[in-house]
Write a structure and sequence with these properties.
The complex is a heterodimer of chains A (80) and B (380).
Chain A: E1 15-18, E2 25-29, E3 36-39, H1 42-47, H2 60-71
Antiparallel strand pairs in A: 1-2, 2-3
Chain B: E1 24-30, E2 40-44, E3 47-53, E4 59-63, E5 77-79, E6 82-84, E7 91-92, E8 98-100, E9 118-121, E10 124-129, E11 157-163, H1 168-172, H2 177-182, E12 187-196, E13 199-207, E14 221-231, E15 235-244, E16 247-261, E17 264-273, H3 283-308, H4 324-332, H5 343-346, E18 349-352, H6 356-374
Antiparallel strand pairs in B: 1-10, 2-3, 3-4, 5-6, 6-7, 7-8, 9-10, 11-17, 12-13, 12-18, 13-14, 14-15, 15-16, 16-17
Classes of the chains: A alpha+beta (80), B alpha+beta (380).
The structure holds FE2/S2 (inorganic) cluster (FES) and fe (ii) ion.
């Protein structure tokens, strides 16, 4: 089986966002204000300053940084 | 007329189904059912296995076909800790070695058959499948389920169903939020996925569907919260809480499968429910049975879709769909050699779905259904 990219990335790709607390970079895509995709890499995983003990939560500092990037227009929101 | 991409018509693409079976732990069902003193045949991974419990109580899994002349060991007899072939009584141990040939002075040097690594845990039997033949890595161990061995929880209520489809269909469910409304008559209001390493998680909250439930005299079901994680390619543990007016019901649901061959698999569910003030005595057992029936109904609903749907490698997604492509990228790690697993397949990926629009649309649809039901023409 070939690994295929998400068809939706043709409309808007993922963009790098830097965490304002620890400086790691992840790839982010926001289809709307309420939707968020986050792609971590091995270096970003090890660089995160406060990985939440509950693995099902997203790092709050990173989420805040993403929200800010979207609000300032640095990160495009497809349906914003 | 033939549709081609140049017409602007989207064409469904599907590669051949992989010839190998996923690397990972697969649950074969409740361990107890293999302890009746007889060998059991299990069709799995494109072949036939024999499961037997020796005198020492250990459950063993071997390739079913005897390496002597091809006798079917699952038709044989358990003698001591060995399985005796019905054809010429060769005795095979759980380690895959022939221990004894009663009519021969000695056992040939090469008398070894395929033995599958097994794990018996929390009442279930697991086998490790690896096309490369490596032992199971400890970091992929199936986590313990504390409720399964606790008196404060019920025993497993288990179901098994043969499904004539490739098992990728059931795994796709992890990310498919909208089908929960249309196929299962539930009402998701929150939906998030996280893939990391060999795990894939779905976090979902939902509310009850007044248009899909018969009004009951008992306490009203308000909704449910679920955290469901696949540990490897086939075994999902779902911590599932049902919220009722005034109390919660905690349950653990297992949703797991093993492939029979490329076009069929055995789909299984297991459920335990916590005993509580709301569910004293055998009320919890009754609830577990009721939930199990409900889960089975959900399986039947999926199966009806899988029976006639097309396999599709290039699904066309809207923004309110879940991360199907990223799930399949994660799933691919179990189909390549361990050395070929790429960081992309295992790196953490998070996807929170925006349920605003779905919830609006579904509220309207529920209203319409209720109005139609009140008017006497039940559309369901
Ligand atoms: S085929 Fe099994 S003992 Fe001969
Ligand atoms: Fe489903």
């Amino acid at each position: 089986m070939t690994v295929r990219p998400d068809v939706r990335l043709e409309d808007m790709p993922m963009r790098p966002v830097r965490c304002r607390r620890c400086g790691v970079e992840v790839l982010v895509r926001k289809a709307s204000w309420e939707q968020t995709s986050i792609q971590w890499s091995t270096p970003s995983m090890t660089g995160c300053a406060e990985p939440p003990p509950d693995r099902h939560r997203t790092c709050p500092s990173l989420l805040e940084s993403i929200g800010l990037a979207a609000a300032q227009g640095d990160l495009e929101v497809l349906d914003g | 007329m033939t549709a081609t991409e140049s017409d602007g018509v989207r064409v469904i693409e599907a590669e051949a189904i992989p010839t190998r079976y996923a690397r990972g732990w697969h649950c074969l069902g409740l361990a107890e059912r293999f302890r009746d003193g007889r060998p059991h045949a299990v069709r799995a991974f494109g072949g036939k296995l024999v499961v037997f419990a020796g005198e020492d109580g250990r459950l063993n899994v071997l390739d079913a076909y005897c390496r002597h002349m091809g006798g079917d060991l699952s038709e044989g007899t358990i003698k001591g800790n060995e399985i005796a072939c019905p054809f010429h009584d060769w005795r095979w141990g759980g380690d895959g070695r022939c221990k004894k040939i009663p009519y021969s002075r000695r056992v040939p040097l090469r008398a070894r058959t395929a033995a599958w690594p097994t794990l018996e845990q929390d009442g279930m039997l697991f086998v490790w499948n690896d096309p490369e033949g490596n032992p199971p890595p400890p970091e992929q161990a199936i986590p313990r389920i504390p409720g399964a061995t606790s008196d404060r929880w019920t025993d497993w209520v288990w179901t098994e169903t043969v499904v004539n489809a490739n098992c990728r269909e059931v795994v796709d469910n992890v990310v498919d939020m909208a089908h929960f409304f249309y196929v299962h008559y539930s009402f998701p209001t929150y939906f998030k996925n996280i893939f990391e390493g060999h795990t894939a998680t779905q976090i979902m909250k939902g509310r009850a569907r007044p248009d899909a439930r018969r009004p009951s005299r008992g306490p009203q079901l308000l909704g449910n919260s679920s955290v469901a994680t696949y540990y490897g390619p086939s075994f999902m543990i779902d911590e599932l809480t049902y919220h009722y007016e005034g109390f919660d019901i905690n349950s653990v649901l297992i949703n797991c499968h093993y492939p029979i061959d490329r076009n069929s698999f055995v789909l299984q569910s297991g459920i335990i429910t916590e005993r509580s003030e709301a569910l004293p005595g055998d009320e919890a057992d009754k609830m577990a049975r009721r939930l199990s029936d409900f889960i089975q109904l959900g399986f039947e609903q999926d199966i009806k879709i899988w029976k006639t749907k097309a396999r599709i490698d290039n699904p066309l997604l809207c923004e309110e769909d879940g991360p199907v492509y990223q799930l399949r990228r994660w799933y691919e790690q179990f189909y390549v050699d361990a050395a070929d697993v790429t960081p992309e397949m295992t790196a953490r990926f998070e996807f929170e779905l925006d349920t605003t629009r779905p919830v609006e649309a579904w509220e309207r649809e529920v209203e319409r259904n209720l109005a139609a039901q009140a008017a006497g023409d039940d559309p369901a």
